[in-house]
Amino acid sequence: MLDTALTVSQLTYKIKYLLENENSFKGFVLKGEISNLTNHRSGHLYFALKDENAQIKAIMFQSSAQKLKFKPKDGDKVIVTGSITLYAPQGSYSIQVNSMSLSGAGELYLKYLELKDKLKNLGWFDKPKRELPKYPKTIGVVTSPTGAVIEDIKNTINRRYRLVDIILYPALVQGAQSSLSISTQIEKANSDNICDVLIVGRGGGSIEDLWGFNELATISAIYNSKIPVITAIGHETDDTISDLVSDLRAPTPTAAAELATPSSLVLSNNLVDIYRKISYMYQNILNTNQANLLNIIERLDLSSPAKKLNVLSEKLDKNEKFIKTYYTYKLNESKSNLAKLELKLKSLSPKNKLESSIKDLNNLKVNLDLFYNYRLETVNKRLVDNIKKLDNNYQNNIVLKIQKFNYITDILEKVNPTNIMKRGFSLAIDKDFKIITSIKEVSVNDLIKFKFHDGSVTTKVIDKEEK
Known about the structure:
With 467 residues, the protein is of the alpha/beta class. 51% of the residues lie in helices and 18% in strands. It has twelve helices and 13 strands. It has helices at residues 8-21, 62-65, 105-121, 148-160, 178-192, 216-224, 241-245, 253-260, 264-302, 305-347, 350-415, 417-422, and strands at 28-39, 45-50, 55-60, 77-87, 92-102, 138-143, 165-170, 197-202, 229-233, 248-249, 427-429, 447-452, 455-460. Helix 5 packs parallel to helix 6.
């Protein structure tokens, strides 16, 4: 019985062989939710896949993980392909994941990001936005004919600006055929060429509900539209690629209608302002013409021969007075210049220059004497100060040197061997004049010289005793 017993390792490796070689446990597809995700620094992913009733461990090695098109996180619904593997040391089995993709809305979101990046690189989002007409005559609306969107837009436009016509281009705004339906109606509106603005929109919903506005057919139709396009898709927090290529994005269909039309109240106020401006301009023109008329009458009055003669006579009198005044001014100016020249000649006289130079030399001599005495006094003062400093430094150095000498002398006195010998010690020296420090260096009959502080003796070793 004992001979047929399996070891734990044998049983574990049998189970491992059966699990890893069973075809149904290889390359299968599994759907579940990620939990306990660990992104190891090696690049491997460790996590568990679970549903409402069970969970299983999983590992995705770095070579497979680096191919993922999204960053996994706890709570993601995913679809994986992989095989069962068993880790023998712990006796635990897990899935070795080879590929992984998001399930449902997550997969759509990946498609959304992929197409968004592609169109961004093509420059579709950099197309210059067109200005909307201030006073449109016809507005086209591409939306469902039965939804609340068209009614909201009609009510808003009728409240704000009744001078515009509304043309509905009915389209499917949800489902597999929605993108084809929307793009076809946008192209029809462009073909009709009767609309000044197009509003393309629908109410809120999930990413699946709004997906028709993230497909290339709808996006291309908006991008290539010759008519300015306002998108009003979903709620304010919903983002679609169609919003990025349109000329203007509105948070709601009602807001789109408001952006597309002017307010009748604002227009009424503008008309009042325009009337006031025209009245003001009319009054200004009237006042200007009246002033011009008075000016012409005055000019005609001044143009009569008698008035011209009087004017010329007055000018002649003024010119005569001006000439007399100018002559008197120039005569005084010449006299003033002559006086200035006389003063200048006097100042240029050699005698005056010599006297001025002598005076300057005397002043310079006085200043030099003062400066010399000041410098001499300053130098003497500095010299006395320096002598005092040198004397102080010399005295301080002498004191320090004496203190240092006394300190060293005291130390030398303390370590002087002679002083130690005076206390009863002696120095033993062998025949080679080496100091003996141990009994082992001495033999019987050796001659040893003992030095005392006041002399020395030579002795012969008769006996020795070691400790």
